[in-house]
Structures are given as structure tokens and as C-alpha cells.
Amino acid sequence: MTSATELPAAAPAEPSEPFGLGSSPLRTDALPKALGIYPYAADLWAEGLLWGAMLRSPHPHARIVSVDTSAALAVPGVHAVVTAADLPPGPDGTPDGAPAGPIVADRPVLAADVVRHHGEPIAAVAADHPDTARLAAASIVVEYELLEPVTDPEAAFNAPPIHPDGNLLRHLPLRTGDPEATGEIVVEGLYQVGRQDPAPIGAEAGLAVPRPDGGVELHLSTTDPHGDRDRTAACLGLEPDRVRLVVTGVPGATSDREDLSFQVSLALLALRTGRPVKMTLTREESFQAHTSRHPALLRYRHHADAEGKLVKVEAQILLDGGAYADVSAEALAAAVAFSAGPYVCPNVFVDAWAVRTNNPPSGRMRGEGALQACFAHESQMDQLAARIGVDPMEIRRRNAMATGDPLPTGQAVTCPAPVDALLDALTESPLPALPVDDPEADWLLPGGPGGAGDPAAVRRGIGYAVGMVHMLGAEGEDEVSTATVRVSGDHATVICAAVDSGQGFATLARQIVQTVLGVSEVYIAPVDSDQSEAGPSARGRHTWVSGGAVERAALMVRHQMLQPIAADFGMSVELLTIADGKISSYDGVLGMPVSEALEGRELWATAQCRPHPTEPLDENGQGDAFVSIAFCAMRAVVDVDIELGAVRVVDVTVAQDVGRALNPRQIEDRIEAAVAQGVGLALLEDLRTEGGLLVNPSLTGYRLPTALDTPDIRIASLVEERDVVATFGAKAVSAVPAVVAPAAVAAAVRAATGLPVGRLPIQPEDAAVA
Amino acid sequence: MEHGGILVNRTIMLPTSVDEAVEALAATPGAVPVAGATDLMEAVNAGRLRPAALIGLGRITELRGWRYEDGGTAVLGAGLTHARMDRPDFAALIPALADAARTAGPPQVRNVGTLGGNIATAAPTGDTLPVLAALEATATLARAGSVREVPISHLLTGLDPLRPGELLTWVRVPLLHAPQVFLKAGGRSGPARATASVALVLDPARRAVRCAVGAAAPVPLRPLEAEAWVAGCIDWDARGEEGAALIDPAALAAFGEYVAGACVPDTGLPGEGPGSAAARLRRTVSVLARRALGRALK
Ligand SMILES: Cc1cc2nc3c(=O)[nH]c(=O)nc-3n(C[C@H](O)[C@H](O)[C@H](O)COP(=O)(O)OP(=O)(O)OC[C@H]3O[C@@H](n4cnc5c(N)ncnc54)[C@H](O)[C@@H]3O)c2cc1C
């Protein structure tokens, strides 16, 4: 656990540049990225490199009768073709092809006997030209025996097992309180969430270089260098220290990045050929390869008393895990624990399942599980408000959770739960202007410029939503990170394997060291897997665990630096402060530059941060499963063309529980990014399948929000109530706005149209008033 | 780049006149013309097209502009970009085509994508196509030693398709000096492919309304009966009079339904009921057609 030491106020009175925690320095990668000179994995190059390509299944479910690679090997320029036969077999009862996976090792790197989803990799080729590699991969002859795909998650329960592990990935019941309890008011709803894809700007790309010791070095935009190293090594039958992952620039990650099949195949090709191999996936392959958000079906019944106080929440939640387990178990835990939302409810009864289907595998994406539940519980709260005739904000106020209240899992929310403060901030925030106040030519109507929008058919709607998401790994996962800090001369270096996936960790680490050590020049070392482990960039964990490790290492360095000086002056270290590159004593007698105190020495320290442990949810869904929770409230304002069903989100105003704003500008950026993604899910983004086949795996077919689709995003308040056990009291900020935004947009569309809006993304026919 | 380029060792020719271009086409078997390459490179990158040679049309300056003929016709170069067609001088001439060009993709694409490419690709979602159909435009197709004139609709339906070795050079469009509207439903506020579009032009000289529906079928559809019917509902003599109602609102709505019913027929088959994809499309087309005529007569 991190000490929440109050640090000496280190920021100089008039900083020339933003300095230390609480300021908003520019991210170091901002300029290179804007100028297009930031090196991504797809830009890598090595002398004599070969090009890799994959062969993927055109079927969602089929038995592989035979794979004949001879035609591919005969193509001039082809250096290697690898299949599952080149990988170690899986342990008994698992599929062959080196099965691996983040929680359960159930996913073959290359399919051996059965393909379970459209685009599942079967073979990989290395050739001296990318075209040659692609053509050769296409010439591999695979004989399939087609199997009936299981594409309806509700049918998965009784369908023949599509994997040795069966079709049920997890069943998680939650029971708390009196099952017989009833309320005067009962509202029910069925809610559906589609398949959102992370659709990162940069598709998967990487370079593998064989090492003289028989190992391999992988240059990838991984967000979990050690996890990926270990899994890759295991799949290749190598010791982990024979595989080195070097993290290149990450071109966008709101989920896990490169999938295991990609990196293991790449490594295997390099080992086979003894030459560097580079591979970049096409956009279509990218959609096929990485995991997407769990499609969900949620059936809810809320009981409340006449005043709208919740009496009982009953829910059935079904997540479509797709072909492989991935993190479905974890997503399900979040969906169940947060099924009632940030409200107090004495009686909660939930049954939730994650099932295996022949649909594309689902995995990690901002607020997995919590997002789906949020759409449902917030829709229910709106129904309740309508039934008892109160304002949507009022129903939320009457039920709002506060610090100390229990979750339905029995865990007390000991971290700040400032739900009331968030609602107040939204109430006080002014509404955006009505378009009637603007000249007609300036209106951006639903449908966009040049669209068919008609002002006479446009209705405005305002909707609210509140939601929550846990941060850090849950249910007993060991959370830990390690960091090293070095000071020499007038600058410091941070070595920490926490990947800056765009979330801004590098900037934060710099600010932490500035604050603790008073030096302004802080260099953040590039990340590779030879460094100590920091864990994945996911679940909003690095601010806490890696930020905590950096803080502790910096404090240790500080102590080493000040100890001799304090001893000289016969005072305790606590009476010395470092600010503006200078060490001073409380009485002002001492004033010494940091560089002088160092006397040419280098000081190093390495430290770890390990938050308090959690425990798995039991057979009744009870247990202290989470380290901490972040809350967010949002108001969305939409314009709907009620004839065409076209929706434009005009404004989203956000009040968020951040614990402490360590970098306000960066927090705003993260909120904007998450709201944009949430708006995308609410209105546009859906990776569709038909009979298990991907229908729209392209950026034309899969519609991302453009600048014109992204609303004005305003921060009503960043509520700073410190979480005393968290590093610097700060909470993770990136996931919770993505969890809440879709629910808020749906509520606003409901308000504009009077229609029920039970699914996401909202289709034109869901918003068109017949 | 030594390895990266996909067109390594393939011929690229850059003629500067139509004659040179058609000769090059005739002389190079398997050669494919390319203008803005916004469709072509997508096909190449996806592996659907591997042209043996490319004939770039970008240097044929005469095809990048337009001229007038017989006072009543504009002759548009196939190399006109969407961005160029969206400029005010062009928009004053053929407003519906300018409207369509304005919505044909993001600015980067419209800066290079051309009218000729849009026609030759003949995608169901090609935004200029319903406008050209409503305008009853014709295309000039040139090959070494011969030239022929074909209605765009024949080109698109495959009745008289573009033949190998042929270059689309000019598009003839009547100048109608009357309101024209192009409306597109696209599914997002930013640039998107049409889910349905309607082009509508008034031809006051012939007291006619011409309309075409895009993206509802592989080619633009003309609801000829609806056009003829609604032309009779319009008070043509009141045109230009301040505040005159040119059409009864009920007729506007009926026109929308008429167009939608004609272009997205209700087959009565199971699965085509209310809420089906066809019913949704019909509804969208109906709203677009009603709004288009309403705006043209405003
Ligand atoms: C991101 C993106 C968004 C898009 N959005 C839209 C949209 O909203 N609406 C829309 O309509 N289109 C859209 N397009 C498609 C495309 O931009 C248009 O169809 C454009 O008009 C094509 O013109 P081009 O000059 O780029 O054609 P090219 O790609 O150069 O050529 C396309 C085809 O036409 C042939 N060709 C070109 N010129 C001639 C000629 N003179 N004679 C004979 N054959 C010829 C080529 O051989 C090729 O087969 C989009 C494209 C992209 C990449």
C-alpha cells in the first residue's frame, strides 16, 4: 500500500513551465504525434527484413481436415510457412496450437483442429515482399468441414460445446437481502448492447529480430510487455528471458493491443528464418484479430416505494464472450457488482452469464461489464422517475450512494463516493444555447452539413446518467508495479515498464519526480521487458500502482540525498524541503542547489507499490472484490430529426470524481476521449456479424465518430475528494466517462422522442417517431 | 521504397491530352486509367485489383474544367474534382451536383476524387449518380479513333457499359436555371456513405420534375409516374411570385410516399413488414423526397 504522505509543496512561485503535480505540462509525445514524426511500430525497419502475412479462417466454425502448405512454400521469395504443427501442443484437454490467454489459456495461437471464429489465424508466412507473403498465404490449401456456428448467445447454453472447456465461460449469481421484497412501483426493461471495437488508429504492426542466443526480440506496441513476453515465451517453448519485448510508440489503445497470435507468429517466423520479420495487419485483419466489447443482453426489474426509493433490483445479464474466454470472467464481475448502479438498494438478485459463441472474441475495452450494466440501470432509473413523476436528477438523488454505503456485493465503499456532489455540479452547469438563438445557416443539424436535416422536424432532448467503475485488477488479482528513479546532476530518470499507451503516464511520472525531487529535467526511459514488471496498461491502474512506485522510489532518493545534509546541520530530514532545484531548511539558513548536494554522485532507488489485496466474489456474488471505485455523472443534450431518426449530440457536460487532479489538462483530454468513444457506441459503432461472419470490418462500414459527431464536451466539475489509500489520493479517470456517456445519450434521445430506446447503438428507427 | 511499394515494376503513364491517353490505353493491354485513385487504390490495397499498368489522367488539363455548348448545356470534364464542383461558380450552374459533391467523402478525398471516377466506379452509393440520372446527363466515351455518346443511366445499368480501352471524357448536363436539390441520409454527422439519397430538379421550361433515388438499389432509380403526377400538382405560373404557395402540403407528402413506394416496393413478402430494412429505407426515401421537393419549391 502506498503512503499518502503529504508532499512538500514544491512548485516554484512563478514556474516558467508547468511543473509538478497539479500543473498541466504538455505531453512529450504531443508534438511529434501532431507533426507525424512519432515512430510507430509500422515505421520500423531492419536490414534484410522479411515480411510476414497470416492466413485466416473464412468460416466462423469449421473443423480443419487438412492444411497443405506446399503451394505456399513453392512460391519464389517465400522463406517460411508455419502452422500449429510448428508450435508445442496444448496440455491435455485443451486445443493444440499453443493455447494461451489472459485469464484462461484456451485460445490457440494458430488453429489446429477447429476454427471458432471468422478470421482466426491458421498459418503465417515470411517472404521477401509483402505482396509475396500475402499471395503465398492465400495459396495455402485448407480443407474445412463446416460446422454449425453458434451465434446467438442465448442458444450457446444448449448448443454442442464449441471448445473443450464448454460454452459457459462463467456464471455469476449475486444474492443479497430478501428475495420476497416488493415495491409499490415496478419497472421492467430489456436492454441490448452491440459490439464496439477499439478500432485503434494504428493497426497491429511489429518487428521480430532473432537473437544470437536462440531467443527473439519483439518490437511491438504492446501495453503489457511482461505479460506478453511470458505468454509468447510459453507458446514458443522458450524461457521468458529468451524473449525480449521492446515497446514502440502505441498508436492508440483503449484495450489490449497486439493479440498473441500476431506476436507469437511473428517471433516464430523470425526464429525459423533467422532473419528479422515485419508484419502489419490490414484494417480488415485488424478488426478480425483483436478483441472487441462484449455484446450484452440485460433484463431488469426494479422495485421502488412510492417515493422512488429502491427496494429491490432483479437482473439477468448475458455477455457474449465470443470464441475465447479472454477477460470475460472479469467483465462479468464488474457487470454484476455494479448492476444496480451508484445507488443504495437493500435487495439485489442477479444472475449473470458469459458464454462462448462463434462470434468474434470479446475482451478488454474501457469499463468492460460496467458499461453494459450502466446503460441498463440508468434506463431503469429514468423509467422509475417517469412513473412516479419526478425529475431524473431527483430520482438519482433519492437513491445516491455515499461513502461507506455497501455495494450489492457486500463490500463497503470506503473510498469517496461523492455522487451527490456530482449531481449538484451538473445541476448548476448551464445548458447549451438553443439553436433558435443562432442564425439558421449556422445550425449543425442532425445528419450533418449537407445532410437532409429539417429544423421543423428537430426536437431537443436532455438526459442524465451516473455510473461507476472499479480501478485496478479485481477479485484477488495481485496488483503490483516497480519503478526505478535515478538522479544525477540536475536531472532525473525514471525507469518503469508502465507503457504510456496514450493515457499520459510518462507525463505523470515526470510530474511526480519533479514534485518529490525538485528537479525539472526528468527523462522517462523507453520501456522494454528487461525492466522490472509494471503490469498491463489497463483498468486504470498505472496512476495508482506505477505512480505509487515512482513516488516511493523518488522519496527514497530524496532521503538519500538529504540524509547527509541533515546530519551535517544536526536537523532531521523532515525539516528540509526541495523546491526549484534547491534544498532549503525550514529556518532559511540552508539554501543549496540539488546538483551541489549530489557532489557528482548518482543516486538510485527502486521501489514497489502493491495496493491492498482483494478477494474473489463467492457463490452469492459477495466479497471485497475491488480496490477502489470511480464515479461520474453526465448530462447529454441531443437534437433528433424525428422523421429521419438522425441524432446529433450537441453537448455533454461531465462531473467526475477524480480524487485529486494531478494534471487537469490531461484529465480533460482523457474525459473528452472517453466521451467521444461513448458517443460512438451510443450512436454509431457496431461491429456486426451475420452467421458469425463480420459484415463491416472496414472504416467505411464501421462508423467511428468524426469531429462533427463529437459534441462539445464540458467539465462541470472535477470533484476532488481524496481517496486516502490511493497514490496522491487520485482516481483513474479514463474509463468511467466511457461507461456513462452511452447511457446519458440514450436518456437524451428518449427525452427528445418519447421512445423507449432499449438498444445501443441507437438506430435511426429507434429515434424516428412514426 | 524498394520493398514497400505495391506497384513495383509496373508501368505508369502520364498523358497530357485525351488523344495521348486513349492511344496509351489501346497500346497497353491491361492498362487501367486512374484519376484521383480514391476508389482504385482501395481496390488495389484490398487485393481486388492488380493493374498491369496505370494511365494517370491528372495531367489532362482540359478534362479538369468545363465548357458550354449550344447555350443550354454544360460539358463537364471527367477530371473535375468534387472539391471543384463544390465551389460557388459551379454551384450556381448545377446546384444539385455541387450539393452531391460536397457530401462525397471527407475533404482529403474530395480534393482528388473526380466526377469520372465516381461514374466509372458506379457504386450504389456514388453521390453524383442520382443527380446525373435526374438531369438525364450523357457521357462521352472515347477510344482510339472513335467517340460515342451514351446516357449515363445506360452506362450505369449496364445497358451500354464502358468498354475496355474506353475513356470517359465528358459529361453533358442540361442547364435548367431552376432550383435543384440533393439530399443524403448518411448515418453520421461526419462524412459517410449514403444510406439513401434523393436528387430532384425542376425543369420549368417543360413544366417537369425529375427525381432520382440513390443508394436504394445498385443504380439510381427514377420514379417516373410520381414525377409526372407531381408536375401536375404544381402551380407553375406562381413561380417567382413572393410568398406564393406552389404546392399543397398534402401533395408534397403524397409525393414522398409515391417515390418511396416506387423505388422501394413493398413486396408483401414475409420479413418485409414494418420495422424491416425495406420499410425503414422506404420511410427515409419518403422523407427525403418530400423535403427535396419542398425545398425546390420554397
Ligand atoms: C474515405 C473515402 C470516402 C468516400 N466517400 C464517398 C462518398 O461519400 N460518396 C461517393 O460518391 N464516393 C465516395 N468515395 C469514393 C470516391 O472518392 C469517389 O467515387 C470518387 O469520385 C472516385 O474518383 P477518383 O478520381 O478517385 O477515381 P479513381 O479511383 O481514380 O478511379 C476509380 C475507377 O474509375 C476508373 N476511371 C477513373 N476515371 C476514369 C475515366 N475518365 N474514364 C474511365 N475510367 C475512369 C478507374 O479506372 C477506376 O476503375 C469515398 C472514397 C474514400 C476513400
Task: Describe what this molecule looks like in 3D.
- Chain A: It holds the Pfam family Ald_Xan_dh_C.
- Chain A: Residues 1-18 have a biased composition (Low complexity).
- Chain A: This is CO/xanthine dehydrogenase Mo-binding subunit.
- Chain A: Residues 35-148 form the Aldehyde oxidase/xanthine dehydrogenase a/b hammerhead domain.
- The complex is a heterodimer of chains A (770) and B (298).
- Chain A is an alpha+beta fold and 770 residues long.
- Among the domains of chain A are: 30-38 and 480-609, Aldehyde oxidase/xanthine dehydrogenase, molybdopterin binding domain (Aldehyde Oxidoreductase, domain 4); 416-466 and 629-770, Aldehyde Oxidoreductase, domain 4 (2-Layer Sandwich), CATH 3.30.365.10.
- Chain A is built from 16 helices and 29 strands.
- In chain A, the strands form seven sheets. A seven-stranded mixed beta sheet of chain A has the order 3-5-1-12-9-10-11. Chain A has a six-stranded mixed beta sheet with strand order 7-15-14-13-8-29.
- In chain A, β20 (576-579) and β21 (582-585) form a beta hairpin.
- In chain A, α14 packs across α15 (735-753).
- Chain B is of the alpha+beta class and 298 residues long.
- Chain B folds into three domains: 11-56; 61-174, Uridine Diphospho-n-acetylenolpyruvylglucosamine Reductase, domain 3 (2-Layer Sandwich), CATH 3.30.465.10; 180-296, 2-Layer Sandwich (Enolase-like, domain 1), CATH 3.30.390.50.
- Chain B has helices at 18-27, 40-45, 82-85, 88-93, 95-102, 107-112, 115-121, 128-134, 152-157, 224-231, 249-263, 277-296; strands spanning 11-13, 31-34, 53-56, 66-69, 73-77, 138-143, 146-151, 167-174, 180-185, 196-203, 208-214.
- In chain B, the strands form three sheets. A five-stranded antiparallel beta sheet of chain B has the order 4-5-8-6-7. Chain B has a three-stranded parallel beta sheet with strand order 1-3-2, with helices on one face.
- In chain B, β4 (66-69) and β5 (73-77) form a beta hairpin.
- The N and C termini of chain B lie far apart (56 Å).
- The interface between A and B is medium-sized, with 33 and 29 residues.
- The complex binds flavin-adenine dinucleotide.
- Flavin-adenine dinucleotide binds next to β2, α2, α6, α7 and β8 of chain B.
